């Protein structure tokens, strides 16, 4: 059973339910609870079968533990990314250090303007 419920805790919950509901109404509530549990089980089985239908035979190949968010460890992910033995990033890094002659287009130098009282910078009165 899940949620940390032991037999003793279930027995205590049942005893409290008997005291709160009373012996005359207890059979009716127990029957309603049994129907609810039965309906929940049917819903769970229907959901499982629908997922199997939707995913097809690939559902057996899915590693559900790998998809568990509790398995997420940022330190491990960073360590794996930094220390993996993939030669592709090394090639890309050396290409950036030693670019080809035609890799970058030559731009004309930027013109510098000197502004003064007689030659103020352009001002757009509609923009402010």
From TrEMBL:
Membrane topology: Single-pass membrane protein
Taxonomic lineage of the native organism: Bacteria, Bacillati, Actinomycetota, Actinomycetes, Micrococcales
Record localization: Membrane
Keywords: Membrane, Protein transport, Translocation, Transmembrane, Transmembrane helix, Transport
Pro residues bias locations: 119-128
Region (Disordered): 108-128
Pfam short name (any one): TatA_B_E
Family annotation (InterPro entries): TatA/B/E
Keyword Transport: yes
Keyword Protein transport included in the entry's annotation: yes
Protein name per UniProt: Sec-independent protein translocase protein TatB
